[in-house]
Automatic annotation (TrEMBL):
Name of the protein in its database record: Esterase
InterPro entries on file: AB_hydrolase_fold, Esterase-like, Mycobacterial_A85_antigen
Organism name: Streptococcus pseudoporcinus
PANTHER family assigned to the protein according to its UniProt record, in alphabetical order: ENTEROCHELIN ESTERASE-RELATED, FERRI-BACILLIBACTIN ESTERASE BESA
Top-level taxon of the source organism: Bacteria
Length: 273
């Protein structure tokens, strides 16, 4: 097995709406340099700090993307890990102003998500397609994220329906602006061939060493159900949707790491590579 670090490339981008450089890491298949004639599907993921290494993750545990790809039998893919904006993460991942005041966040925050989505589609993806051997078409371009990252994934797919053919929306935090999101999705249907993996736990609101929060638990379930119903109402075939409600699962990277292989399986099991 090749050294996992030899195939991790790092780039820094100046986003048009912020002066701070953004780190984007590109995880290549171990045999990338040996197969010069091979092009690969690409998975773009938000919250890059939480994806690869435990010591970088907010929670102390990552999605373990590298380990998952090495352990599972999937076609080779390229993973693009896009770092979040630290203290401005909520603002950047919310495509609409917040409908509810969030503790420690500026009232009426949010809305930069539209600029972020545009940057991903019009600047980052073309850069990746130009500099790496990718399969840049709809069927081989994927987008995924959790919580607020799930929210911006849902928005981006609706705004740019012909770009990403596979979506992973984990524990969507659409309660921040659900009315606006559902209305937008109603008027901007997904591409009819989109594959969707949707996941939520029944204990998303529970925190370690704290009393259970049934109201918050239900909020996350309701958010996912409402989004699911909206997508079904658009006419997306149910065979293209994998909706997983995980009993007891919390709002953590550990859970999303466990579900990541199921997400990949849904996207890649019938995708030609």
């Amino acid at each position: 097995m090749a050294d996992i670090f030899t195939n991790l490339k790092t780039h820094f981008f100046a986003l048009p709406y912020t002066k701070k450089k953004r780190r984007v890491r590109v995880l290549l298949p171990n045999n990338y340099s040996e197969k010069n004639a091979v092009n690969y599907p690409v998975l773009y993921m938000h919250d890059g700090q939480n994806l690869l290494f435990d010591q970088e993750s907010f929670s102390g545990s990552s999605w373990k993307i590298i380990e998952s790809l090495q352990a599972q039998v999937f076609p080779d893919i390229i993973v693009v890990a896009i770092d979040h904006a630290d203290t401005y993460r909520l603002r950047e991942y919310a495509p609409f102003p917040f409908e509810k005041v969030i503790p420690h966040a500026v009232p009426k925050d949010g809305g930069n998500g539209q600029d972020y989505a545009k940057w991903v589609v019009t600047e980052l993806k073309p850069f990746i397609d130009l500099n790496y051997r990718t399969k840049k078409d709809f069927e081989h371009s994927f987008l995924a994220g959790s919580s607020m990252g799930g929210l911006i994934t849902a928005y981006t797919a609706a705004q740019y329906p012909n770009v990403f053919g596979g979506l992973g929306i984990f524990s969507i935090a659409s309660w921040t602006c659900e009315k606006q999101l559902l209305s937008f999705c109603q008027n901007h249907p997904l591409h009819p061939k989109t594959k969707l993996y949707l996941q939520v736990g029944t204990n998303e609101g529970d925190l370690a060493n704290q009393p259970s929060n049934p109201q918050k638990n239900q909020t996350y379930i309701t958010n996912s159900l409402n989004y699911y119903k909206q997508i079904l109402a658009q006419g997306l075939p149910i065979s293209q949707i994998d909706f997983a409600i995980i009993a007891g699962a919390q709002h953590t990277e550990n859970v999303w790491a466990q579900q990541f292989p199921h997400f990949l399986d849904h996207l890649l099991k019938s995708n030609p590579t």
